[in-house]
Structures are given as structure tokens and as C-alpha cells.
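In response to the reviewer comment on reproducibility (Comment 2.3), we provide here a single inverse folding case reported in full, input and output, so that an independent group could reproduce the run without further information from us. The C-alpha cells appear first.
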């Protein structure tokens, strides 16, 4: 059976292949976790100094803050910003398409979808991708702001560096960087205005909603149900805060 399984070598035993793949995934997860903790630890004091009125890294993961007004507002802003990015992405695709430039339209990766559980796959990849992209971007902005004390310069330089990698398959290539630069400028404003929570929520929402819209186009009940479940999970913190307010007629005190 093992040589019929995608991604496994026919020269290895079934359990040997499982062990090899599992160990590699575990090491990748540990590396990502350690680097994430180091980055957060390095940025925490600087972040609290620059953004004293925003939720800190510690309080973002504190369940006691999920019923606060500050958390509710920042979370809502993150989702709204994600919808704006998706709308801008659609407009950008349309402009390039009518201009005669090449741009690859997104499609479902069936190799991933048929290998993993779609629900777990979307959530884990969304969390991993949002953290791996947002943390370095925030670190760059904090570093340049510490050096220059200018919001405009720190956001512009960070967005320029961040746009080099590109996220869209375009021809010419720089059009993908232009898109990411515009998103980076607006994300920098969001960071200074509402804090890192809104940025994380927006990045995660863009990643998962982009795939969910593709799920809906499949017209398959399994994928549509998966998309609906993820949307409900995405707005569950807002539902919790509303239920808390309806029950106690108040919200928790803002913990910054």
C-alpha cells in the first residue's frame, strides 16, 4: 500500500515513512515555536513602550480579556480590515486582468486537501502563516520606529522590505510587490492605530477566507460545511463577548 500513498518513498516501510514525516513536522513546529517566543520576548518591552494603550502580547492570549471592550473593538477592526484587503485584492486582480498583464488566479491545492483534514489544515496553516508574516513585519516597524521616531518612515521602509518576497504570481513580477507594498502601508497604519491584535486577526482572516471562498465554489457539501464551521470559529470571540455583555450587562475592564 505504501507506494500508492502520495509523498512516501516506496523504499521505506510504512511506519518508517510515517515516523520520518512526523519527526520532520515536529522539528519544524518546535523551531517555529521557539523562534516565535524569542521574537515576542524581544519585542514585548519595546511594543509596550511604543503602544501603551494597546493590548500587550500577554493579554492577547489571556481569556480574561476576551470580554473586554478593547478586545472586542480590535477584533472587529481586524475582521473588517481583512474584508477590505479581500475587496482590494479582487479589484487589483481585475485591473491587472483588463490591463493585459498576467496574474495567476487562486485555486484549491487538491494535494493538500486530499491529504489533510480541510478544517485542521486551514486553521493550522492560517495560524502558522499569519504569525510567520506578521511577527517579522511588526519587528521591523518597531526597530525602525526606535531608530527614526517617525511612523511614516518606519512603515514605508518596513513595507518596502516586506514587499520584496511578493505573494502573487504576476508578470512582470514587480506587480506582486506593488500589491504587497500597498497592503503593508495600510497594515502599518492599523498597527499604530489599533495594535497587533487587529493585525493578527486580519492576516489570519485573509488567509482562511480566501480558501473558504474557493470551497464555496466547489458546490460540495463537505467543503461548504468546513467553510461555515471556520467562519463560526472566526467570529466566536465576538459572540462570546456579546453573550457576556447580555448576561452581565457590562464588559470586563480593559487590561493592557
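Designed residues, in position order:
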Amino acid at each position: 500500500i505504501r507506494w500508492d500513498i502520495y509523498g512516501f518513498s516506496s523504499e521505506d516501510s510504512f511506519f518508517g515513512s510515517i515516523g520520518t514525516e512526523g519527526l520532520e513536522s515536529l522539528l519544524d513546529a518546535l523551531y517555529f515555536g521557539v523562534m516565535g517566543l524569542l521574537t515576542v520576548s524581544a519585542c514585548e518591552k519595546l511594543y509596550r513602550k511604543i503602544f501603551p494603550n494597546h493590548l500587550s502580547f500577554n493579554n492577547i492570549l489571556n481569556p480574561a480579556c476576551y470580554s473586554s471592550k478593547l478586545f472586542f473593538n480590535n477584533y472587529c477592526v481586524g475582521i473588517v480590515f481583512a474584508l477590505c484587503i479581500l475587496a482590494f485584492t479582487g479589484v487589483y486582480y481585475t485591473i491587472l486582468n483588463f490591463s493585459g498583464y498576467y496574474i495567476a488566479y487562486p485555486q484549491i491545492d487538491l494535494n493538500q486537501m486530499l491529504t489533510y483534514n480541510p478544517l485542521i489544515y486551514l486553521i493550522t496553516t492560517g495560524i502558522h502563516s499569519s504569525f510567520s508574516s506578521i511577527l517579522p513585519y511588526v519587528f521591523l516597524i518597531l526597530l525602525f520606529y526606535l531608530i527614526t521616531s517617525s511612523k511614516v518612515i518606519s512603515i514605508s521602509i518596513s513595507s518596502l522590505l516586506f514587499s520584496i518576497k511578493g505573494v502573487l504570481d504576476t508578470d512582470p513580477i514587480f506587480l506582486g510587490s506593488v500589491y504587497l507594498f500597498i497592503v503593508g502601508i495600510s497594515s502599518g497604519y492599523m498597527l499604530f492605530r489599533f495594535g497587533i491584535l487587529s493585525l493578527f486577526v486580519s492576516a489570519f482572516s485573509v488567509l482562511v477566507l480566501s480558501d473558504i471562498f474557493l470551497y464555496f465554489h466547489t458546490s460540495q457539501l463537505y467543503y461548504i460545511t468546513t467553510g461555515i464551521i471556520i467562519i463560526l470559529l472566526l467570529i466566536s470571540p465576538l459572540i462570546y463577548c456579546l453573550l457576556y455583555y447580555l448576561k452581565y450587562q457590562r464588559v470586563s475592564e480593559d487590561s493592557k
